[in-house]
Design goal:
four-stranded antiparallel sheet, 2 helices, alpha+beta, 6 strands, about 160 residues, rod-shaped
């Protein structure tokens, strides 16, 4: 006749081992989700920064005197204001910077830009994202982000 074991002392560590295996996988997955979410936030913030900067640049004078057709990279009297608007969200550069961006990360490029003509592009390049997960700390160089807007008032009336 088979006798059932009534002594629980032989099963003391089983639950602890099962919890350890399941909890390790669960918390690793939870950390990966949080780190991935942070990376996705950084991506969206960079996309929004270029869009905001290009929109601002399309309404600024690209040349002095305003209205003269401008072509070139990082030229124009409002370059600092455009970079500040891209990084800080205001032309003065007084707010907190988005993701610790620096002015050298922002490039402004005019293509036959003038009153109601041409386009202006704002790019963010060489941004380094630090991906931090315990045991896996790595630096990711994010791809170049670029947004282009058609020329609008260029800071003057036609």
């Amino acid at each position: 006749m088979y006798r059932e074991h009534t002594n629980r002392s032989s099963q003391c560590g089983g639950t602890l081992i099962e919890f350890t295996v399941v909890a390790t996988g669960f918390f690793t997955m939870l950390l990966a989700i949080c780190a991935g979410s942070n990376l996705y936030f950084a991506h969206n913030a960079l996309v929004e920064s270029t869009r905001r900067g290009a929109r601002f640049a399309a309404t600024q004078a690209a040349s002095s005197p305003a209205g003269t057709i401008t072509t070139g990279t990082n030229v124009g009297p409002s370059l600092t204001a455009i970079r500040n608007y891209t990084i800080h969200g205001n032309a003065e550069g007084t707010a907190t910077s988005v993701l610790s961006l620096q002015p050298e990360n922002v490039t402004v490029e005019y293509s036959q830009f003038g009153v109601g003509t041409g386009s202006v592009s704002v790019s963010i390049t060489n941004y380094r994202y630090y991906f931090v997960i315990p045991g896996l700390n790595t630096e990711i160089v994010m791809p170049a982000y670029r947004s282009t807007q058609a020329g609008e008032s260029a800071g003057t009336s036609p």
